[in-house]
Every structure is written in C-alpha cells, then in structure tokens.
TrEMBL record:
Organism: Brevibacterium aurantiacum
Alphabetized InterPro entries for the sequence: Amino_acid_transport_2 (IPR018227)
Name the record gives this protein: Amino acid permease
Pfam families recorded: Trp_Tyr_perm
Annotated compartments: Cell inner membrane
C-alpha cells in the first residue's frame, strides 16, 4: 500500500489555478442540484404525498451533505487539485478510482440525458420547433461555457441562479396568492412510497463531484469557505426542492401533475406564468448542465491523465464524450425523463456514499497536509453507517427497478 500513498502520481495533469468567490461556489452547488430533479420531484412524489417527500428530502439532504463534507475534508488534506476520481486513486488505488469515476459518469450522463429530453420538449413547446432542434439549441450555450472552464462557469452560474431563484419564488407566490393551494392535495400520506421518493431525492441532492472543483477555486483565497459553501448551497437546494412541490402539488393535486412539473403548473396559472415557468425550467437545466458537464469533463482529464491546458484536441475529445452520448440517447428517447433520474440516483448514490467514507479514513492517515477544516461530528461512525445503509438500499431499489422486480406503483 505504501506505493499508493507515498509515491507521487505520475503524469498527473496539474491544471492552472482558477479562483472563484464564496457565492460563486454556492451557486455552482445550487446550480448542480436544481435541475432535472426539481422538475421531476412533484411527479415522483405524487403517490406518496408531500409529507413523504419532506421526509425523503430531509434524509437524502442530510446524508448527501455529510458525504460532500467528507469530500471537502479530503480535498483540503490534498495538495494536488484532484477531482473525485483522482482523489480516489490517490487514497484507494485504481479500483477506487474506477468506482468513483463510474459513479460520476453514471450520475452525470443520467442528468444530461434528462436535460436533453427536457430542454428539447420545453423549447419545442415554447417556440414551435422540433424537439431535436430545441435540444441542440440548449446544448450550444451549455458547451460554450463549459469550454471556458471553472471561472466562466462560476460567473455564469451565479447570474443564472439568481434569476432562477427569483422566478421560483415569483411563481410560488403567484400560486399561493392567486389560485391558492388545496390542503387535501398536501395532507395525504402513503409511507410505502417513501422508498422510491428517496431514490429520486438522492439524485436531486447528489453533487459530491462538484466539491473538488470548488476546493480548487477557493484554495488560495478562502479554503475555510468550502464547507460553508457546501452547507449554504445544500440548504438553499433543500428549500427550493420543497417549495416547488408544495406550490405545484398543492394547487394541481396528484392527478394533474405532469412529468415535467412546469408544463402543467404553468398552464394552470395562465399564459404568462406558463412562459415564465418554462423559462425557469430551462434555467434550472442549464445551471445544472454547466456544473455537471464541467465536473464530468475534469474527471475525464484526471482519470485518463489528459492535459486540460493548451491541448484543445484533448479538450474537444473530453467535451464530445460528455455531450454526444446523452444527446443521442435523449433525442432518440431511449429512456424516460424520471426513469433516467431514478436509475442515476440509485447507482451513483451507492458509489458516492461508500467511497467517500473510505477515502476520508485513508486521507486522515495519508493526507499531504493538515486541512483548514475537518468534518467533526458529521463524520461520526453512526452517520457514516447510516449513509452507507440508506444509499445502499437506494442502489438495491434501482437494481430491482431495472429488472422489473419492484412492487406495483413504485416504478
């Protein structure tokens, strides 16, 4: 084991330093999380009810935040600006690196497939264009920002996240003050359905892969701001993931919720609200696209030791690997919108819960430096065990769902 931890990694691609601000870091986390998940949660929660959704959000939100804070401490203990796959290779060897890389790829591609399908449908409906053209128009600004790297992504995320949150709050206020919500749409509870809702909530919160990139951006100016950015970003995420289903499900009821919530929600509020709700959907998918595509691309650089600077050929190849598969799968409708999210959340959640726990133990023994911050009580063995158990069950659910062995109504 000594050679894994004591010898320097060969041919590591050390990328140039790019600084971001605390709020840009928060925006990247919110942008990564507030995407396809928030658009599908009301539909995914309709059978269990709003209170079942709240339980699922509390469980998934707390545990994913804990896992992200483990990654934050690991990154702060490491001198090199490595991504998750690089950190896993450093502390767990090749097997751990390939596992975490698989988790990043499955989660990232699952989300990007959903954005291809969702953005195409939204733009087709708004502009009267073919779905394929809508998806293509969405991908252009998405890929351009990712091409320019972390600083461009942080600035873009901050601007669009502010606009996105303003639109969410405006539409929710319009719903509460205008048509109002019906208590009978919110007070029913079917605990049996908490299991599939947790699986979807895991996807909506899972942003561990963004933490090493934030660590790189905050390392020089504000390393202690990293855990605060995680907590603030995840807190904002949880609030938004709760308030949208509260408004949409409360107004429409379970029988009228559409798979992409903004379609039915906006139509019920009127034409102006319909346009605004779908603009929000596009902003949500775009902010999440930027964060996920950037971290997926940088993990490809890390995993395959590709140069990220002054090597446009490798950068184009990495961007093509990120963009082309989900575009083709989404355009040809090879998987459903919510199905893509559920599978991604289960498979990736299991990997990205267990592996960071193992990495944290190894980093505390073999890390390069004393960190500016440590996880403290959040790294208690009981919390680590709970994280592994809950996300492991989500993984089992995804396996059973994939082969059609789950109970009726859970799919």
């Amino acid at each position: 084991m000594s050679e894994t931890f004591d010898q320097p990694r060969q041919n590591v691609n050390i990328r140039k330093s790019e600084t971001i601000t605390f709020w840009q870091g928060v925006s990247i986390i919110v942008g990564a999380n507030i995407g396809a998940g928030i658009l599908s949660l009301p539909y995914g929660a309709k059978n269990g009810g709003f209170f079942a959704l709240l339980v699922a959000l509390l469980v998934a939100g707390f545990l994913t935040t804990a896992s992200m804070l483990y990654v934050a401490e690991i990154a702060l203990r490491t001198k090199e600006p490595l991504q998750l796959s690089g950190l896993a290779e450093k502390y767990l060897g090749q097997a751990g690196s390939w596992l975490i890389f698989a988790g990043v790829v499955i989660n990232g591609l699952g989300a990007l497939i959903a954005y291809t399908s969702g953005s195409g449908n939204v733009l087709a409906d708004l502009l009267g264009i073919p779905v394929t053209v809508g998806s293509f128009l969405f991908f252009i600004p998405g890929l351009v920002v990712v091409w320019f790297g972390l600083k461009a992504t942080g600035r873009s995320e901050q601007g669009l996240s502010i606009a996105m949150i303003a639109l969410i709050l405006f539409l929710c206020a319009w719903t509460f003050i205008g048509p109002g919500i019906h208590l009978e749409h919110l007070t029913y509870v079917h605990p049996f359905f908490i299991i599939p809702i947790v699986n979807l909530a895991v996807f909506s919160f899972i942003a561990q892969y963004t933490v090493p990139e934030l660590a790189r951006g905050l390392a020089e100016t504000n390393p202690q701001g990293l855990p605060r950015a995680v907590i603030v970003g995840m807190g904002i995420t949880g609030f938004l993931l709760a308030i949208v289903p509260l408004a949409a499900l409360g107004m429409l009821g379970p029988d009228s919720i559409t798979e992409v919530v903004t379609i039915g929600w906006g139509q019920s509020l009127g034409q102006v609200a319909y346009v605004l709700s779908n603009v929000f959907a596009l902003l949500a998918m775009m902010t999440s696209f930027w964060a996920i595509a950037l971290t997926l691309m940088t993990n490809i650089f890390d995993r395959f030791k590709w140069p990220a600077e002054n090597a446009n050929g490798y950068r184009i190849a990495a961007l093509a690997l990120v963009a082309i598969p989900p575009f083709l799968v989404g355009v040809f409708h090879l998987t459903g919108f919510v199905a893509a999210l559920g599978y991604a959340g289960g498979f990736a959640g299991a990997i990205m819960s267990v592996v960071p726990v193992l990495m944290l133990h190894r980093a505390r023994r073999f890390g390069d430096q004393e960190p500016a911050w440590t996880a403290g009580w959040i790294a208690h063995p009981l919390i680590q065990a709970l994280l592994i158990i809950v996300f492991g069950l989500a993984f089992i659910y995804s396996l059973l769902n994939a082969v059609g062995l789950i109970p009726d109504g859970w799919a």
